[in-house]
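Q: Hi! First time doing this. I have a protein sequence and I read that you can turn it into a structure. Is that right? Here it is:
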Amino acid sequence: MELQGVPVIITGGASGLGEGAARVFAAAGAKVTLLDLQIEKAQALAEELGGLAISCNVADADSADAALQQSLEKFGPCGVALNCAGIGTAGRILGKEGPMDLALFSKTINVNLIGSFNILRLAADQMQHRAPNEDGERGVIINTASIAAFEGQIGQAAYSASKGGVVAMTLPAARELARFGIRVNTIAPGLFKTPMMESFPQEIQDALAAGLPFPSRLGKPSEFGALAKHIAENSIMNGETIRLDSAVRLQPK
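A: Yes, that's right. Below is the predicted 3D structure, encoded as structure tokens:
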């Protein structure tokens, strides 16, 4: 897909991987809409990029519907939707204080999995009304999973389940939406320099980076954005989950 002038919706776009992708897509000439609960940060970035910022809870049907409607009115039907909104949770199934709080598990699934599906369904509804290009393509949906979907560590049962669900829905969604000319792919990032990672002491960040085969450094949000841009532009890439992780494989803990 040619990105010049194409409306692109990015959830979690105010910081981290979402911000990195927003900068890459904006540089390619896309009309970027940032959906985030950190609305002040999103507005500042949107102003810099000439885009639009909307407060949105991706796990809430009405909030997401209103946000996508606002984007539609501003830029027209979505051509690319990139799901970066998510939460990182940790907790043992059997902890020192007893079984994991079920509310923690449910919240993780609601934000990471149901939130991704929520945006996917609403974006696809807009995309089906776009004029197709010469390949018959109308839109591209890119979800964000995690390498924890494949090698979840101790304490990541909820997080891994939520990201594993994102991986599992990629192919069936791609197959179902193919008749509308809509592609669906997923990126499974490894260790990236995001605000969550930067909250850790530097020695911990350095230790994590040292365990990466090559390159032995944390990924840059711009590198995530570069892959998302390539997926959007490469029309034959469909139904795939791509690891972006310096060849690391997570150990049990």
